[in-house]
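Lab meeting, action items carried over

1. Structure of the two-component assembly. Owner: GW. Status: complete.
Input record:
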Amino acid sequence: MPIIQPLDRDKVEEKGWERILRRCEEVQAPDDLFVRILARAPGYAKAIHDAMHMSHAEGNVPHTLKEIIRVQLARRAGDTYFANLRSRKAIEEGLTEELVEAGCGDFEADPRFTPAEKWALRYAWLMYREPKKIGKAFYDEGKRHWSEAQIMELGGMIALHYGMQVFMRTLGAFPLRDPRGRPVDEAEARQIYGPRVGDGLGG
Amino acid sequence: MGLTEEMIDEGVERYRESGKFTEAEKLAFRYSELMATDPGAIGEEFYGALREHYSEAEIVELGVFIGFNAGYHTFFGTLDFYPMFSPDGRLVSQEESRRIYGDRPVSHLRGPLARAQAGAPEGGARAAAAPRR
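Predicted assembly:
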């Protein structure tokens, strides 16, 4: 189990809990493991999940692009939980594992991404590696592709998701399902996904 | 606690050797420091130490708060904006705020407070509000 044990589903007394569980089932990024850990602190599951869901699965930037960014960030954070989750909604919208890999690798040279998508992927890539490269010139370039609202949507999503990924990394958690969606226990998930992801911050 | 600038500096710069914080507070500072710089060093043993001082609810509260701030401060840093208020409470323009706080975050006791007071109008720091941009 994660270092902080999640509450049982029926032990959570959180406003809108059924809705949170329904969204976790629909999107699966996060699944309900994360929100049951958050629910240890009263009020946190709803507040944090609402913000994460809005920034990731709603808004005016394509969800598939934000899903690639979410995985790219989780690898940077070195988090075995969020890096191994996949949004069912994004998969239904056409996202493939090959595209996720492309967005986490040499996306600049990949013709499958538009200049707007490359800018967004670069934004996430630089944020926790070389944030000083993100300045006025970088944002000016972004404004050629995205509205200010979309840039704020991307920036907010990147910041919130990365922060929660770093926290989850410290708990040593894994998804509740295998890559095909089959429920698995933690030992099997650990064996399937392995102990390391990406170039994780701090080794 | 009656938080002062001196306490903030002590917590940010010298918490390990400081006699002004409890072991529980020092552990919370360490949690924050490691989350930003070396999250791989936070594991079972570290959480075991946290549990000697905090409940599970409090640990989640701290962890989420720290993660949230770690994520957002970097993002906000790229946007190049400054506080709307000077350290002595005046509403200031972004230009004045930039002059007061400088390009790098430092202790308010080493520049920003003095610069704010030097730029304050007569009649008190809160007497005048800068024009809105």
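2. GW to write a short summary for the group page. Key points so far: Chain B touches chain A at residues 35, 37-44, 46-47, 56-61, 63-64, 66-72, 74-80 (CB under 8 Å). Confidence is low (pLDDT under 50) at residues 127-133 of chain B.
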